[in-house]
Amino acid sequence: MANKAITTMNARNMQQVSATQRVVKIAVQVLLYAFLILMAIIIIFPFYFMLISSVKELAEYKQTVQTLWPNKIVLFNYVEAFNTANLGRLFMNTLYVGLVSTILSLVITVLTAFAFARLEFKGKNALFAALLGTMMIPGELFTITNYQTISNFMGLKTLGIQLGSQWLQDLGNWKNTFTVLIVPFLVSIFYIYLLRQNFLQIPNELYLAAKVDGTSDIKYLWKVMIPLALPTLISITILKMMGAWNSYVWPNLVANDEAHRLITNGLRNAFTESTGDVNIPVQMAAVAIVSAPLFLVFIFLRKYIMKGVSRSGIKG
Amino acid sequence: MVDSKKSWKAWLYLSPAIVLLLIFTAWPIFNTIRMSLLEGYNAMSAVSGVKFNFGFKNFVDVINYGDFLTYLWNTILLCFLTVPLSTLLALIIAVCLNAIKPFQRLLQTIFFLPYVTNSIAIGMVFAAMFNMVGNNFGDPNELVITAGIINNVIEFFGGERINWINVGSSYAANMFVMTVYIVWNALPFKILVLLGGLQSVNKQYYEAAKVDGTSRLRTFTRITVPLLSPMITYVVITGFIGGFKEYSSIVGIFGAKMGPTGDPDRLNTMVGYIYKSLSLQPGRASAAALILFAIIFVVTLLNLYISKKNTHY
Amino acid sequence: MKVVLQNLTKIFPSRNKKSGEEVVAVNDFTFEIPDGKLIGLLGPSGCGKSTTLYMISGLQKPTGGKIFFGDDDVTELSPENRGIGLVFQNYALYPHMTVKQNILFPLQNLKGADKLPKDVMLERAYEAARLVQIDELMDRKPSELSGGQQQRVAIARALVKMPRVLLLDEPLSNLDARLRLQTREEIRRIQKETGITTIFVTHDQEEAMSISDMIVVMKLGVLQQIGKPQDVYDDPANLFVAKFLGTPPINVFSGEVKGGKLYLGEQAVLDVAGVDDRKVTVGIRPEGFVPDANGPMICDLSNVEIMGRDVSVVSKHAASLNPQIRSIVDADCRISVGDATVRFTLKPHKVFLFDTETEERIRF
Fold this sequence. Notes:
The structure holds three protein chains of three kinds. Chain A is mainly α. Chain A has two domains: 2-54; 76-312, MetI-like fold (Orthogonal Bundle), CATH 1.10.3720.10. Chain A is 75% helix and 0% strand. Chain A starts with a helix and ends with a helix. Helix content of chain C is 23%, strand content 34%. In chain C, strands 6-7-8-3-9-10 form a six-stranded mixed sheet, with helices on both faces. In chain C, strands 13-12-11-14-20-21 form a six-stranded antiparallel sheet. In chain C, strands 15-19-16-17-18 form a five-stranded antiparallel sheet, with no helix packed on it. In chain C, β12 and β13 form a beta hairpin.
């Protein structure tokens, strides 16, 4: 067997093969970088376009051939954008909804995940499987009924009308409140699942040892499990905050009044037209303002975001 | 005794989640099915105590309602344009990223950037890039003030400018813009997952292939793709699920009217249909939501079946 | 195919950038591997043996030095152009391909003038499979095979393109003890049948000694000794080699040479004419002890382990650097466990003297 191989291999000019192979290797590296840099430019370009357009005067923006760098940098688009869209109010609304729903959601998620990871009760596995099963159902299916639910919670509004009680009517009608933006989304099966997996990795002996020492469940949860699961909790917090920042459909449907509007539908409502002869520099300034916090979060917490995302596939 | 006490405690911990899930998850599942099966159900009459017949009329109505099929077609078209394209592109980018050393992390971060954006906000940026400012599009007296940066680029390379999204734009041009935007938006997640998969593949397979003189293309098709097939299946399935629920990226570019000025709802989707009819015709909205669920379910099973056939280990 | 390594050196940059320390994995290796032999690269973990193998394969680039296959300088050549077969420690069989597809894979890569017709490829795949006796498993997936069978498939895949040099990285480490014995005979047989120069890496001296034509002993990136297994065993170059080879391991003592006699403690145990008076480290092979009622070396007897063919005597001596001395003696020598002491004479060619500082061999 070997003899034939030796003849075929010797037939080659080793020096030449070696030189060719070096050239090919360099060429491949050059092509790889060329392709990746081209793709990276395409990926970044919209952000670049947004930034340069936001600091152009409207007249410069409307030039037949657009400039790739503003002739004159102006900042008044930002002021106008801030006022037009009432961004200050939208920021505060979104921050409030984001913070409250994150905190409440974390509490519920931790308690639920703890029960599923550490406690024994009848039907635990069946219940958990059922919860996971609901993850398959598109959220739109829930939205229809939830819209009815929050319009007339537990039939209280109807009851209020029948009894002539304004108070009951208000209690039943959640439209245009912060409650409607927070409560329906407090439970996320995915976060419960994520945290439960994390809790399960913590050895059960720690829990039993704590029991022997007479530590209460809550104290154990607070002192042992939460610190150990901190990275997951941080991921959940970021994704939840980003969720509030980016949510459009539900707020647009149920809380589209000035007092409760969130940033994304506020932005879309302030600039209903994105095509035609509109003041694009101002729009771009508004978009830049809205995007800035996301980029800051990304720069500082990239690790947690990427970790959370690679496991979820859910757009924050 | 201890066990029953524990069990009682467990239910206490679970109670907030259970209550919320009953109201906002369990009841909607039941109620959506119920409403979809009550003929001509609508909220107004329901409140005033009207009784509805039981039947499949809502489903029939949804399908006969002319626009639904258009929306369904839009949704399917977008899915089949964007999912294969973004998956293939993400795979190529991930493989290239995996093959370089300097600047790998920097490039990886850049490719992840579109993920942390707001799809409505950046949709407005894309709209601006494709937007023409002017009058009388397509007229001999056409008056264009600025054709938009994309048209500038096309004209720079000697092409003709295209009316992408403005009044009188073509359906194909609209779809092209949507595809570009959705692919751009979908890349980061897919690259992240595929690159993660690539980095966890045992390096020895590649060393073995190298010793055997396997060409780059063959290494890609015969080793990388098969070994990565679970990840590919995952991004394709999540891509299809996302694709069938496409809605807000269209709002981002075209606004709530879901089409270019003068032709609203031209690009509307199944989810768009659900939102449109949800307050006044919840029966039909429910039927549409169930149809959407069924489609997603079937497509997911189909994907799993195909990947099972192709993954043998 | 003769393989020559010339001043081969591999330096890994430090992982910790701040400390800036480099790791010299392989330090200035020069040796020649004759054509058609089975060579074992032997040493404890971290000695650079796998790095050397990877440099021969071309998967790692040497920092300095040259590698020749025959007269060809292959140092700059990438692996696929070297004409080697490589068997990985974990076999690296493609999990999604059948055994047949795995073995065919290298052949399907051949291009241009080397390209083979389909039936020839299949024929050669079956030939390779028959050689390693797995031709009945061709349609299985690697996950359906035992460790030993996977090993054979990996060897068949490496052999199928008729390499000039076959490289095996720790070929037996993933097998259980029984399979290990069987497989090492198998490797020997395959190497004999094909006549391909074969280099394998191992940390198990018994494995290397039992099948190699030649062993290369390494320590911390430095070549210690090359030679036929028996020669290296009988004539170790330094204390490390002496200690590394042989089971049970060599017994080490601190001793002193005075007036041509070797003293262990107060006992003059051996004539060592021609060695100057000095302190020495002494290594005595277990089989170098001969029980003798009047022997010069007196040890405290701890235990006698009967092994049938021979007897293992466990004893203690004040000059020993190990807690116990283990000697293997003929079963005919009756030593009773009840005795307090046991006396030995020593076989001179089983006793090695080493410098206490450099640990280099002192010949006598």
